Amino acid sequence: MKNFHRAAERLHLSQPSLSRHIAALEKEVGALLVERKSRHLALTPAGECFYTEARTLLESLKRAQILARETAQGKSGMLRIGFTMYSVHSVIPRYVQLLRSSFPLIALELEEIVSDELPDKVIAGEIDVAVILACAPRVGMLTATALTEPLCVALSRNHSKARSRTIKITDLKDDPFVMTSSNAGSKLNTEIMNFCCRHGFEPKISLQVRLQQTMLSLVNNANYVALVPDSMRQIKMDGIAFKPLIDAPLVSLEIAWSANNSNPCLDSFIQLFRSHNKD
After folding, report:
1. Residues 101 and 149: beta-carbon distance below 8 Å
2. Do 216 and 223 form a contact (C-beta atoms < 8 A)?
3. Paired sense of beta strands 176-180 and 204-209, if any
4. pLDDT at 58
5. CA distances (Å), 139 to each of 143, 175, 267, in order?
């Protein structure tokens, strides 16, 4: 704008008032910003510099206002999700994709954590959401079922039953079982024990390990057998065969979060989760 009259009209000011505002700004800045040439005006080099920086600041302020508003509304920010290997091929990819498409400004921090530690980390606020096998209730922790699926058998491809289309649990009564530890109150081990007992035997639990990866490695290299959620059949390991289990019991993967977590992004995730799990 190189005309005082037009500039004043745009700002809804009189020309004398505009001149006073410019003079006051120059005094505050400590530099001549505008060259006055009769009824026309032009920016000095100092004025050009001030204009560029001021415009950048105003744009940053506008962006800060938008981001603050979106953060308060749960549309922007950070969501920390903890999980175990059991959910890598089912719940995690599904909801990561939904979050990316529905809330692209929410940054996700995904951390694979030992199942024993997930409930404590949720309650302590170290993560916002955990994807866990159904476990005993914890004070201050809320849960919702994300997926219910049958168990299947993981065994070495050298096992005598590796070529079978399906397996009966009694086929494994003489085999050594490996399980994950149940310190976190997971119902999985109890379900496996009860299932075997209903079929007339108590499983030979030779080892309990903390990590699912360790469990599968023992199945692969040490001829142990394991019962795992059916979605783990998607894992491709050369030495392991995953086989359907006849009359397999069902297990549930749940999402868990703290009732005291005030992260707006968590609210957005829970709303998204519920909208896709109405049944």
Report:
1. no
2. no
3. parallel
4. 83
5. 11, 38, 19
Q: Which of 136, 121, 39 is nearest to 82 (CA)?
A: 121
243 burial level (CB within 10 Å; 0-12, 13-18, 19+): buried
Which domains can be identified in the chain, with CATH numbers?
4-72 (1.10.10.10), 77-146+253-275 (3.40.190.10), 148-252 (3.40.190.290)
CA 66 – CA 88 distance, rounded (Å): 34
Phi, psi of 221 (to 5 degrees): -110, -15
Phi, psi of 154 (to 5 degrees): -110, 125
Residues 128, 257 contacting (CB under 8 angstroms): yes
pTM listed for this prediction: 0.76
H/E stretch holding 127: none
Helix residue ranges per DSSP H, the chain: 4-10, 15-29, 45-72, 91-102, 118-124, 188-198, 212-222, 264-275
pLDDT at position 3: 63
Least confident of 14-18, 124-128, 231-235: 14-18
Looking at this protein, which amino acid is placed at residue 187?
Answer: K
Give tens-digit pLDDT for 144-190: 999 999 999 999 999 999 999 999 999 999 999 999 886 644 678 88
